[in-house]
Structures
1.
Amino acid sequence: MTTRLEQRLSRLEKRVEAIHQMVYTLLQMQQAAPPAEEPETEAEAIPGELAEAAVAEVAALELLDPLDIQYELALNWANEGRNQQPPQDLSEFDLAGRNLRGADLKDATLERASLARADLTGARLQRANLSEADLSRAQLARADLSRAQLQRADLTFAHLVYAKLTGAGLRYAVLTRANLSGANLSGADFGGAQMHRANLARANLRDAQVHRRQLATASTLDGATMPDGRLYDGDPEPWK
């Protein structure tokens, strides 16, 4: 199944081919025309002008970077994407290292997208589908990921300080060495998630679906609110 990006690139390629053919035809017309020092009318100058304009358009199209197109489509979603019919599908987009600070990506479909090292500080990602996305080393401080789908997402070394993940689906996600200090994780589902060396200091885990063995692998739980509502007292087990 072709993605929207592949369809867009296919249309661009066809446009470039059509322009190349037009340039070739216009040049053939120029070569076939009798030589003249100056065109007698403006109409006679049109083929040459069209050729120059077509060449310029080809050059502009050939300079387009597919990754830049993806970034522009993501920004377009942040501005007005959810109003498009049908909404833009951002699945498998490569947005690694991009600046998406404060971007409004609520309800966006970003399955298997690459957002490694992306700056999503303060981004609004409520209900976004980020299943299997690469968010390793992403900056997500104070981002709102309430009810976001993050199943099997890679959040290794992700910076999620004071992020909001209430009700988020994190089953089998990789949170190795992620910084979740002060994050609101209430009601989140961590079934099968890897939390080795994750920083959960002052995190709110009230009603979260997480096993004591998972929490035992975290680097710290100091000041955290446990799933049963009590403050962490050095032992993650009693609530089970």
Note: The two ends are 45 Å apart (CA to CA).
2.
Amino acid sequence: MAKFISYPSNVSNQVQAPEISVLVPVMNEAGNVRPLIDEICHTFKGRPFEIIYIDDGSTDETETELKNCLSKIKELRVLRHKRRSGQSVAIRTGLLASKAPLIAVLDGDGQNIPSDLPSLEKALLASRPGMGMAGGVRQGRKDSAMKKFASRRARNLRSWLLKDTHPDSGCGIKIVDREVFLRLPFFNHMHRFMSVLVRREGGTVIEVPVSHRARNQGNSKYGILDRLLVGISDIVGVMWLLRRSNHPEEIIEIFLNNSDTKATKK
């Protein structure tokens, strides 16, 4: 069983419960850590929030940079995997440790822009409360032609086999209601299928245009061929999950006094 180990901090923990938890999974992202944290803090300045970095077994200076930030940024929490376990596992580690009802997820390479998060939050709160996800749709994507081509192929495949209508389900920036997030079936690489899995639970998925920028530091951790081969087996697994989903339309709690019967629609 995994156990959580917190780094010591010279700053006391915030008293007010956070309204939103921002999860940032990273692996060898030295040089990208502090600039992204500063952007997140600026975005949510004046509000109670928390930032949870999940260091997925980095071997560069990522851990050192995060330790340096801990003493300066009271909203920051750091969790570390002893060995690399993958992005989905890192996100789940952060989710289970989070304290807010809304969970934001950002890639740690700096290509997602934190200032887009309020737009995602507003769209989500305006939809079905407590039961959904707002996912980013990248505008002017700053990636190589080969990477964009591979993403289009993967998107077409998900649309065909999984009926995934989200135009950019591979986008790393999103906000999800924590209650829904915790219900999702967990498996490695599940973060690539969030829109389908949220709908499987009866949730609403909102599409929100977001900006995108080029990576300034480091290199991508995923090869195009590796992602394609793993993606095919994942799609088969998600197809199996979708075929076996079964949710009651209405749940009724019965009390001794029949007039007190309450119905909850899903």
Note: The two ends are 33 Å apart (CA to CA).
3.
Amino acid sequence: MKKQVEEYLAEIKEIADNINIEDIARVVTTIYGAWSVRGDIYVCGNGGSAATASHFTSDLCKIGVGAYCLNDNMAQMTALTNDVGWDNVFLNQLAYKWSRSDVLICISVHGGVGEDKAGQWSQNITKAVDYVKRYGGKVIGLVGFDGGVLKQLADASIVVGHSTPQVESWHNHICHLICEILKVFKPVRSCADCGFIHDGILCTKCGCVHYTHTMGIKGNIQEIMKIGYPEIAYK
């Protein structure tokens, strides 16, 4: 047992040492770009990745991001499976609400590579990605192994690990890391009447409810862009 524990912990250290920080910067910048123009973030996954998608969505919402998990409504998921098929459960939900300022985050261990009794893995994810890309949208992939199809299609992706347990665990770590970074660079509101900077619904200076978004009061997204990819941020 000791050997197994040591090997597992050694894998964790190896993954941590090899995570690409520029990939993380690219993902954060993409999410921030949508957030700063009040775009929506849609998150989805299958199996353990579905649980991660739900957890990540909850954490994004807690810091003020307009995030929605495509896995969370079980009645809708089963209705769509019954009516249009499992491979369309994410695509169908996006088709009625997608905007070009939105971002789709897909979480998948194998990235759509491989198959089992039900056919190709994650066919519901790859169909949703194809739809978003066709309409000029942005896609983020959190994947494992070699990243698969999802890494090739995504505008930004983070690849971790080389075993399913490690990949699923590290996807959770990375989701928490993304939220910690976004907290620092949270977009704030500039009052449309008096210009006062605040982070609430009402201006605490004049009580106005009208506002525009500005850059984070606690940090500067330009610092992320220096190591990331500024062309991905929304203008």
Note: Residues 31 and 99 are 14 Å apart (CA to CA).
